[in-house]
Amino acid sequence: MTNNIKHSQSNFWFHLGAILTVTAWGISFVSTKVLLDHGLRPAEIYIYRFVLAYIMVLFASHKRLWANSARDEFLFAICGLCAGSIYFIAENTAIEYTYVSNVSLIVTTSPLITTLLVGLIYKNERPGFGAVIGSIIAFLGVGCVIFNSSFSGINISPIGDILSLSAATSWAVYSLVLRKLNALYDVMFISRKTFFYGVLTALPFMAFEPAMSSPLVLLNLEVLPHLLFLGIFASMVAYIVWAQAVKRLGAVKASNYLYFTPIVTLVASVFLLKENITIVGYIGCALILGGVWLGDYISQRQMRN
Question: What separation in angstroms does the CA of 29 have from each of 24, 168, 236, 287?
Answer without folding.
Answer: 9, 14, 16, 21
